[in-house]
Amino acid sequence: MVRFAELSGVVFPGDPARRLHAAGGGGEGRRTGVDFAVAMAEKLLTEGVPGPRYITLNRSSPTSEIHRALLGSALTAHA
One MF term in GO for this entry (predicted)? Predict the structure, then answer.
């Protein structure tokens, strides 16, 4: 994620970067990344963004987790 931020000329936010670095690789790092992505997407959706765009980099499992979490929160919000 840091490399993508560098390539696109944006600053990767400090707190998420620290949390991802502290979590390290493996399951904990993945969970931290998925949780961050879900929180960010929920915020953007409540602010009126029409929908998420996923860049999977050939890793569909985290993307599926994010999508399911967003779908679940959308269903709960409209229930």
Answer: oxidoreductase activity
